[in-house]
């Protein structure tokens, strides 16, 4: 099965490990992520003002490019997913806006369905099927699923999962054999792009999330968003004084999938983290294996 | 047992109790101190939360009361003595002279045209004038004129006499004198109602006497289609349309230190109604409401307040007002918005104060006559506020309406029906007992069975 | 100093502009505070999010000087929970837009630690530009 795939800017640069592990695990499950022939930035923020449609042009172009490839387009980046899914919803309910943007971009966008890979795994593959494909389960690895904001909210337009008590990452991790650590901060905000304006604010928020996960016994945090991953991981980086020894690695769910599906280690992409997740994954599994 | 009920007060609750009892086949004596029935509800423009025209729903009831064969209506009358107990109360009623013969008067109005005296009309809360001979409102029941002896140029000796000259059917009788009648009744319902708190100093709006600062009932008259302005909102001082209107909640209430500790309960809702009705009449106007809490407990009430805010742009400001004073032909209102931590000021065209509800000034006297209890404010107290809410401590004396405490129309009507049901069950019990007694007299041998039944 | 409240403010151009840009009715908010109760960034804000709406309701333009509108991360926790369905992130965006359109620039990339700008994901920089600079 092939699905048109929109990687977005960050997955082509800073988060190549997410892109690589995502493509690899999809392929292992018989899903070919077919990168759009032509694509550009989605805009990175969904425009919240209703009096200015300029900011809708970028996501509509992406949606049009996706429409050329098929009926739906899959994303990995939670922010691209958010922007494109909300743009899709807006253009569905506002035909005047659709006409205006189409006129401006000189294309005929008419509709495409934006999905996240997590939805494909849940709805097309299924957790049981996924579990059957697991060759090296994450037995004993305590993982805290961290959803963040934009993957879930606003519920009426995103609709991926319950916005207050989501389970999709929980279910995925369980299918991989991991020990899921439920923690109250799993839907709290990491500070998002405040990291470029008020880094100390996003760092405080992120470290509260990490602390909560640790308090609940997690060894790893799993996420679906490259900005969450950065905000949670970067403040824990090695300084001149070295590591504190209390670090909490933060990985993409696709990286854990790659490990559990027994893919080659280069597909896991564990080399570009500020806190190395490998010991937490492998150490525990070595224990479980022995 | 005397199967006749006395009802003191002919506002909506007294009327409801009277109709329920009368429709069950018993005789009712309905005593009202004013010249007409209907109470404060007759003064209201529209009712919350349905925005029904108050007079439209009330007038048919008033007419029914006025025409009911089982209801004896005594207006301009006061209960002055009560003796005896349930089943046999002996009641003395003072009837003030109307100086107009009820049976003769056709309410033609010829008398009014000749009367030279002009005084404020109480029914319109002083917003309009009346003559010394007058009818309180066009819908008044009974539809009969009355002569105000205080305002009249002189009855003893007669100083003017123009109205009698004008009355072609000789319905005016200056020689009427107060009379006291004595009746026996089996049960009594007390429904003496309320007035509005008047203490300007306590409300801290020293300009209550300013024509453009008014209470809620005055504003009702201003809104009323049958009111002095025909329902046009114009401010009394210069008859211009007020563009910015400030409503102040809790006038004297929720102020245990200087005024009244209790919540007047209906003001939040009637103020929201005022805001809506004002906007209907002045769409370009703006309403502000200073409030402490918005108390909208009741079916459809919260939604009603939301409507005032969301559809009619009412700006609620959370906080008390400190002062109101005239400034350059307008009213300066100083207050606070605790939500933004700001002292605020509004230059208003009109200020309406939701003055607290207080019991009718007669309540303590009536309570003493009847031997029932009032609380420290003069509201009647039920024997048990939870389980017997319409029963006084004295058997045969029942309570209904705002005399018990602040409440809205539906509650008052329900309570009145409750009090009427209590009267009717007392009558029914006495009837059953009488039947049993009579049966025993006829056939003494079945005594044991009858007692069991 | 007393804040003047008048029809020229509560129904004035500032209120209209906020409502137009956001598509939200300011008076739909009944100030329950649910947004502020759940906002993850309140500690860094000088006004609670609910107070920002309140000032906007009263036409208090000085709300534009609050850091709250810039600290808001558009995490959408508030709109998910608002009992009245008020889209507060859109109101915050409207207030930012009014400032930005007046020529205010809230982000100076040059002032950020270079080691951070080197590391930060692209989407944060693009998002930051769109949120903080016209």
Characterise the protein shown here.
The complex is a heterotrimer of chains A (290), B (453) and C (134). Chain A is 46% helix and 10% strand. By secondary structure, chain A is α/β, with parallel strands linked by helices. Chain A has a four-stranded parallel beta sheet, sandwiched between helices. In chain A, strands 6-5-7-8 form a four-stranded parallel beta sheet, with helices on both faces. In chain A, helix 4 packs across helix 5 (95-105). Chain B folds into two domains: 4-96 and 178-193 and 360-432, FAD/NAD(P)-binding domain (3-Layer(bba) Sandwich); 198-356, 3-Layer(bba) Sandwich (FAD/NAD(P)-binding domain). Chain B has helices spanning 12-23, 54-67, 110-114, 162-166, 200-203, 216-223, 267-281, 301-310, 363-370, 409-442, 447-452; strands at residues 4-8, 27-31, 46-47, 52-53, 71-74, 77-85, 88-95, 119-120, 129-130, 133-134, 146-147, 179-185, 187-190, 194-196, 213-215, 244-251, 286-291, 315-318, 321-327, 330-337, 342-348, 350-355, 357-359, 397-399. In chain B, the strands form eight sheets. Chain B has a five-stranded parallel beta sheet with strand order 5-2-1-13-24. In chain B, a hairpin with a 4-residue loop joins strand 20 and strand 21. In chain B, helix 1 (12-23) packs parallel to helix 10 and helix 7 packs parallel to helix 8. The longest helix of chain B is centred in the last third of the chain and has 34 residues, at 409-442. Chain B is globular, with a radius of gyration of 24 Å. Chain B starts with a strand and ends with a helix. Chain C folds into two domains: 7-103, Alpha-helical ferredoxin (Fumarate Reductase Iron-sulfur Protein, Chain B, domain 2, Orthogonal Bundle), CATH 1.10.1060; 107-134, no CATH class. Chain C has nine helices and one strand. Chains in contact: A-C, B-C. Chains A and C meet through helix 10 and helix 11 of A and helix 2, helix 6, helix 7, helix 8 and helix 9 of C.
């Amino acid at each position: 099965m092939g699905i048109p795939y929109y990687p977005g800017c960050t997955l082509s640069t800073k988060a190549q490990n997410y892109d690589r592990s995502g493509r690899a695990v999809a392929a292992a499950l018989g899903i070919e992520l077919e990168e759009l022939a032509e694509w550009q930035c989605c805009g990175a923020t969904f425009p919240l003002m209703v009096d200015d449609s300029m900011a809708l042009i970028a996501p509509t172009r992406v949606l049009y490019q996706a429409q050329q490839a098929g009926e739906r387009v899959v994303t990995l980046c939670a922010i691209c997913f958010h922007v494109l899914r909300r743009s899709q919803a807006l253009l569905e309910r506002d035909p005047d806006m659709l006409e205006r943007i189409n006129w401006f971009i000189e294309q005929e966008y008419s509709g495409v369905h934006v999905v996240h890979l997590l939805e494909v795994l849940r709805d097309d593959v299924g957790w049981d099927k996924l579990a059957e494909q697991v060759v090296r389960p994450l037995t004993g690895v305590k993982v805290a699923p961290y959803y963040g904001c934009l993957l879930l909210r606003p519920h009426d337009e995103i609709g991926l999962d319950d916005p207050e008590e989501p389970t999709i990452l929980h279910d995925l991790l369980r299918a991989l054999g991991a020990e899921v650590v439920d923690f109250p901060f799993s839907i709290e905000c990491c500070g998002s792009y405040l990291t470029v304006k008020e880094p100390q604010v996003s760092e405080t928020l992120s470290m509260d999330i990490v602390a909560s996960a640790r308090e609940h016994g997690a060894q790893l945090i799993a996420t679906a968003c490259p900005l969450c991953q950065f905000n949670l991981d970067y403040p824990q980086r090695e300084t001149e004084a070295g590591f504190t020894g209390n670090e909490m690695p933060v990985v993409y769910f696709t990286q854990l999938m790659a490990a559990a599906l027994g893919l080659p280690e280069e597909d896991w992409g564990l080399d570009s983290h500020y806190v190395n997740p490998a010991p937490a994954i492998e150490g525990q599994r070595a224990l479980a294996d022995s | 047992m005397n199967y006749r009920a006395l009802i003191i007060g002919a506002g909506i609750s007294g009327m409801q109790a009277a109709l329920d009892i009368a429709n069950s086949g018993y005789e009712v004596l309905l005593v009202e101190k004013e010249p007409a029935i209907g109470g404060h509800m007759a003064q209201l423009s529209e009712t919350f939360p349905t925005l029904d025209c108050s007079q439209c729903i009330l007038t048919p009831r008033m007419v029914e009361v006025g025409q009911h064969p089982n209801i004896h209506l005594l207006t301009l009358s006061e209960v002055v003595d009560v003796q005896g107990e349930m089943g046999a109360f002996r009641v003395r009623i003072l009837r003030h002279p109307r100086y107009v013969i009820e049976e003769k008067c056709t309410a033609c109005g010829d008398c009014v045209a000749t009367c030279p005296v002009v005084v404020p009309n109480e029914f319109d809360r002083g917003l309009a004038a009346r003559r010394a001979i007058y009818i309180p409102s066009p819908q008044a029941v009974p539809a009969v004129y009355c002569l105000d002896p205080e305002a009249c140029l002189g009855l003893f000796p007669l100083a003017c006499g123009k109205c009698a000259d004008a009355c072609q059917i000789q319905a005016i009788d200056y020689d009427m004198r107060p009379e006291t009648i004595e009746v026996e009744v089996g049960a009594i319902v007390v429904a003496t109602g309320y007035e509005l708190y008047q203490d300007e100093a306590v409300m801290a709006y020293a300009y209550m006497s300013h024509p453009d600062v008014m209470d809620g009932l005055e504003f009702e008259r201003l809104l009323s289609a049958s009111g002095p302005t025909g329902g046009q909102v114009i401010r009394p001082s210069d008859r211009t349309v007020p563009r910015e209107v400030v409503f102040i909640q809790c006038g004297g209430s929720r102020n245990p230190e200087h005024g009244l500790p209790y919540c007047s309960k209906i003001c939040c809702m009637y103020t929201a109604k005022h805001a809506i009705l004002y906007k209907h009449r002045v769409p370009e106007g703006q309403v502000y409401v200073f409030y402490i809490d918005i108390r909208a407990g009741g079916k459809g009430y919260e939604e009603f307040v939301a409507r005032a805010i969301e559809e009619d742009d009412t700006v609620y400001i959370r906080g008390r007002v400190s002062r109101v004073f005239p400034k350059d032909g307008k009213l300066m209102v100083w207050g606070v918005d605790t939500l933004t931590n700001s002292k605020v000021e509004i230059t208003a065209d009109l200020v309406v104060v939701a003055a607290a509800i207080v019991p009718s000034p007669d309540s303590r006297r009536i309570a003493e006559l009847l031997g029932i209890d009032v609380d420290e404010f003069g509201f009647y107290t039920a024997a048990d506020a939870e389980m017997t809410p319409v029963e006084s401590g004295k058997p045969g004396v029942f309570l209904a309406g705002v005399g018990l405490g602040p409440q809205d129309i539906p509650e008052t009507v329900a309570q009145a029906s409750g009090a009427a049901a209590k009267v009717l069950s007392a009558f029914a019990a006495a009837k059953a007992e009488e039947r049993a007694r009579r049966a025993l007299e006829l056939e003494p041998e079945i005594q044991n069975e009858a007692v069991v039944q | 100093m007393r804040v003047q409240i008048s029809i020229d403010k509560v129904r004035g151009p500032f209120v209209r502009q906020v409502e137009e840009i956001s598509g939200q009715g300011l008076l739909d908010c009944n100030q329950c505070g649910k947004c502020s109760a759940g906002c993850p960034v309140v500690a860094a804000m000088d006004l609670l999010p609910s107070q920002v709406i309140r000032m906007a309701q009263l036409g208090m333009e000085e709300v534009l000087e609050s850091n709250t509108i810039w600290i808001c991360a558009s995490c959408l926790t508030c709109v998910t929970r608002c009992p009245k369905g008020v889209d507060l992130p859109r109101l915050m965006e409207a207030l930012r837009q009014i400032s930005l359109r007046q020529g205010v620039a809230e982000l100076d990339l040059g002032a950020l630690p270079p080691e951070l700008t080197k590391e930060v994901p692209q989407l944060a920089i693009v998002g930051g530009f769109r949120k903080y600079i016209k």
